[in-house]
Automatic annotation (TrEMBL):
<dbReference type="Pfam" id="PF13561">
    <property type="entry name" value="adh_short_C2"/>
</dbReference>
<keyword id="KW-0521">NADP</keyword>
<keyword id="KW-0560">Oxidoreductase</keyword>
<dbReference type="GO" id="GO:0009062">
    <property type="term" value="P:fatty acid catabolic process"/>
</dbReference>
<dbReference type="InterPro" id="IPR002347">
    <property type="entry name" value="SDR_fam"/>
</dbReference>
<dbReference type="InterPro" id="IPR036291">
    <property type="entry name" value="NAD(P)-bd_dom_sf"/>
</dbReference>
<dbReference type="GO" id="GO:0008670">
    <property type="term" value="F:2,4-dienoyl-CoA reductase (NADPH) activity"/>
</dbReference>
<protein>
    <recommendedName>
        <fullName>2,4-dienoyl-CoA reductase [(3E)-enoyl-CoA-producing]</fullName>
        <ecNumber>1.3.1.124</ecNumber>
    </recommendedName>
</protein>
<feature type="region of interest" description="Disordered">
    <location>
        <begin position="275"/>
        <end position="299"/>
    </location>
</feature>
<dbReference type="InterPro" id="IPR045017">
    <property type="entry name" value="DECR2-like"/>
</dbReference>
<dbReference type="GO" id="GO:0005777">
    <property type="term" value="C:peroxisome"/>
</dbReference>
């Protein structure tokens, strides 16, 4: 029997930085284009790729946030990082950003589609406009990112990663909007993998579980619900942004050269044990929805 207490994760499951596994320069000369790269999980994904030698171009809605993020990423990794502000719901906006990226860096090898929005809301209180907004940011935004970057990814025989979720694997209360959008993201990535595999292009999805060091985790959960959910995670810990960053480095690396059309679930095994009780009481009359009305957005 294991000597580890049932409530404690094994030391072998703890997060380790990717440079303890992969060579520092495996992405030298490569260029990453990332939507949503100014904050949260996606910023950490960008940082990890840059730490292995790549330059990066981040795209989002808030220019001041992007400016600070690009400066910090360049300083921390000693690699170049540029940015453009815009809206993923507009393919023209993305095409302008891609043109700027090509003008500055000359190529695009990797693409991360990570812009997203989320909030808690029961279906009977969810307006059509609110549903549409999330689908347009998450799903249409991913499609527009693919459309804008695809000619350059074909030229470099590069790779796409779309950031999804595990919410749609089961009926997740209060998350019909984002569940629907992320199911579409998964389907889009798989179609992309099949259609453009003959061109040497790979397309994969990373589906994070509950990532503890994010703003959304704090806002969309309570200490009580966190305790309930933690009991259902086989590895007995919440994920970190670094865990998702490591998955990113792997999928973009030559080690994953024969992997495409997959969904890499990074949730500590939680989706295998999920039940309605995993989320606590989903009755909207018993939820504190006021703290979640501001959309969680990585734009």
């Amino acid at each position: 029997m294991s000597s580890h207490p049932a409530h404690s994760p094994s030391k072998t499951t703890a997060y380790v930085p990717s440079n303890s596994v992969f060579k520092d320069d495996i992405f030298r000369g490569k260029v990453l284009f990332c939507t949503g790269g100014g904050t949260g999980i996606c910023q950490k994904m960008v940082e990890a790729v840059m730490r292995h030698g790549a330059s990066a171009f981040i795209f989002g809605r808030r220019e001041n946030v992007l400016h600070l993020a690009a400066s910090a990423l360049s300083t921390d990794t000693l690699q170049r990082c540029s940015y453009a502000a815009g809206d993923v719901r507009s393919v023209e906006s993305l095409e302008k950003a891609v043109a700027k990226c090509i003008a500055e860096f000359g190529r695009i090898d990797f693409v991360i589609s990570g812009a997203a929005g989320n909030f808690l809301c029961p279906i009977d209180q969810l307006s059509s406009n609110a549903f549409k907004s999330v689908v347009e940011i998450d799903l249409l935004g991913t499609y527009n990112t693919v459309k804008a970057t695809l000619p350059h990814i074909k030229a470099s025989q590069g790779s796409f990663i779309s950031v999804s979720a595990t919410l749609h694997y089961y009926g997740t209360p209060l998350q019909a909007h984002v569940s629907s959008a992320k199911a579409g993201v998964d389907a889009l990535s798989q179609a992309l993998a099949v259609e453009f595999g003959p061109h040497g292009i790979r397309s994969n999805v990373i589906a994070p579980g509950l990532i503890g060091d994010t703003e959304g985790f704090t806002r969309l959960s309570t200490p009580e619900s966190q305790k309930t959910i933690l009991k259902n995670i086989p590895l007995r810990r919440f994920g970190t942004r670094g865990d998702i960053a490591n998955a990113t480095v792997f999928l973009f690396s030559p080690a994953a050269s024969y992997i495409t059309g997959t969904i890499l679930i990074c949730d500590g095994g939680e989706h295998h044990t999920r039940t309605p009780a995993s989320f606590g009481d989903s009755d909207p009359t018993k939820q504190d929805l006021n703290k979640t009305k501001k959309p969680s957005s990585k734009l």
